[in-house]
Amino acid sequence: MNRIRVMTIFGTRPEAIKMAPLALELSRRPQIDALCCVTAQHRQMLDSVLDIFRLVPDFDLNIMEPRQTLSTITSKCLLGMEEVLEQARPDLVLVHGDTSTTFAGALAAFYHRVPVGHVEAGLRTYDKYSPYPEEMNRRMVSAIADLHFCPTPSNRDNLAREGIEQGVFLTGNTVIDALQTTVVKDFHFSEGVLNDLDYVNRKVILVTCHRRENYGTPMAHIMTALRRVADAFPDVELVYPVHLSPVVQEAAHQYLDGHPRIHLIAPLAVDEMHNLMARCHLVMTDSGGLQEEAPALGKPVLVLRRETERPEAVAAGTVQLAGTEEEPIFQMASRLLTDLAAYAAMAHAANPYGDGRACGRIADAIEYRFGLRAQPPAPFHP
Ligand code: UD1
Ligand code: UDP
Question: Which domains does the chain have, with CATH numbers?
Answer without folding.
Answer: 4-173+354-369 (3.40.50.2000), 192-347 (3.40.50.2000)
